[in-house]
Design a protein that fits this description.
Elements (H helix, E strand, L loop, with lengths): L19 E4 L2 E3 L19 E7 L7 E6 L5 E2 L4 E6 L5 E3 L1 E3 L2 E3 L11 E7 L5 E4 L2 E2 L7 E14 L4 E13 L7 E11 L2 E5 L4 E3 L2 E3 L5 E3 L9 E5 L4 E5 L4 E4 L7 E11 L6 E9 L2 H14 L10 H4 L3 E2 L8 E7 L1 E9 L22 E3 L9 E2 L7 E2 L10
Length: 394
């Protein structure tokens, strides 16, 4: 496939890297840049961006589709599927919360090869090359430490607090291994729904004050109503920083105390972090290495090797079309770590909102209480009522 030397573009990760934004004029949403310089890139609009992973860890596989611009535009109503190149089995993906995901029980197997295909609403076809699933390597001796200055957040213009997760790697002898780390975290959620202003929650949605309700004197203007979760519920957050490692200089040795995740202090709620360690191909590693260097400004932002930033995706009907992003097959191991945050004195990144219930401001015209106090915990990619592994109730 042809490469355009003037193409200077990046692409977002799942759930978290959803928009192309630029450091200066080029950066990623939720991904910070260290000491940014002013780059000289033009935004090329309407380029297709595809980011996907097929993983051996349940729930870690996905595909995101969007088009480039000042703000990326998600592509909905596409048809997306994985194909097992060994067996020709097809796995259809479904759009959930803006991301295409396979069935919940989907996992890859060591030695299988997978590729991704997609048909957009406009009829255009896109696909990836096939990649083989490598043997996973387990995470050893993972531990957590708190850092008041975890990393610099460019959008907040300050260092933010959070947790570093470190681990050891027992690298196999005589093999070239490339590691990629991801995580998702779980925090207990108290409020499952909130309505703006004086709207109230009825029949699963926020509506204007329904007929038959009145606001008592001293009322509720300029307040939001909160509805407590009626069952245990956890909010799910996703990683937004790239962590990779190559055994080029440590083949067959033990690497101790390697930072594999950085978890910002979004809130001061206790948290479970599920860290995933993936074995990836050399080409995937090189791709993420360039992306990491560019985002963290380890190399000049004014001269990135853009040809490498184009991954293994293409339009089979048009060799001249540039497709941004990458589809990666992985095998991995995971470990869940519970973090008690009761001792932390620093303020969290996200301010805690004031909780105000309907009682006693809403009263039926007949004089009896006519209120709703709770809401359901709706399962999604960002919320679950299933207790995460490693959770400790306190």
């Amino acid at each position: 496939m042809k490469r355009n030397k003037n193409l200077q573009k990046l692409y977002p990760r799942m759930n978290s890297w959803v928009n192309i934004i630029f450091c200066g004029t080029l950066m990623f949403q939720n991904i910070t840049c260290i000491n940014p310089v002013t780059p000289e890139f033009d935004i090329i609009e309407n380029l297709v961006i595809i980011d996907g992973i097929a993983s051996s860890i349940p729930g870690a596989s996905y595909v995101s589709l969007s088009t480039s611009g000042n703000i990326n535009t998600p592509i909905n109503d596409a048809t997306v599927w994985f194909i097992n190149s060994n067996t020709e089995d097809i796995v259809n993906l479904t759009l959930i919360d803006g991301v295409y995901v396979p069935p919940v029980d989907f996992v890859t197997q060591i030695g299988d090869s997978w590729q991704m295909k997609a048909i957009l609403p406009n009829g255009k076809h896109y696909e990836s090359t096939s990649e083989t699933v490598l043997k996973p390597i387990p995470i050893n001796n993972a531990s957590v430490s708190y850092n008041r200055e975890l990393y610099y957040n460019n959008s907040l213009e300050r260092f933010i607090p959070g947790h570093s997760i470190v681990a050891d790697i027992d690298d196999p002898v005589g093999e070239d291994n490339f590691y990629y780390w991801d995580y998702r975290s779980y925090e207990k959620l108290r409020v499952c729904h909130q309505c703006i202003g004086t709207d109230v929650f009825r029949n699963g949605e926020c509506v204007e004050n329904p007929l038959g309700l009145k606001v008592e004197p001293g009322g509720v203007n300029d307040f939001n109503f909160s509805y407590i979760c009626n069952t245990s519920c956890w909010t799910i957050r996703y990683n937004n920083r790239i962590k990779i490692f190559s055994d080029k200089f440590s083949n067959g040795t033990k690497t101790k105390g390697l930072t594999i995740a950085e978890v910002p202090l979004d809130t001061k709620e206790d948290i479970v972090v599920e860290v995933q360690q993936f074995s990836v191909s050399q080409s995937a590693y090189k791709y993420y290495k360039v992306l990491k260097d560019l985002l963290e400004n380890n190399s000049s932002l004014n001269a990135p090797p853009a040809s490498i930033l184009i991954g293994n995706l293409f339009n089979p009907d048009d060799d001249d079309e540039y497709v941004l992003g990458r589809f990666t097959t992985t095998s991995g191991s995971a470990i869940s770590l519970f973090i008690d945050r009761n001792h932390i004195i620093e303020e969290p990144i996200i301010e805690r909102s004031f909780i105000r219930t309907e009682i006693p401001k809403f009263v039926c015209l007949e004089g009896s209480l006519c209120v709703v106090l709770t809401a359901d915990c709706i399962e999604s990619r960002f919320r679950t009522g299933i207790e995460p592994e490693g959770w400790i109730e306190q």
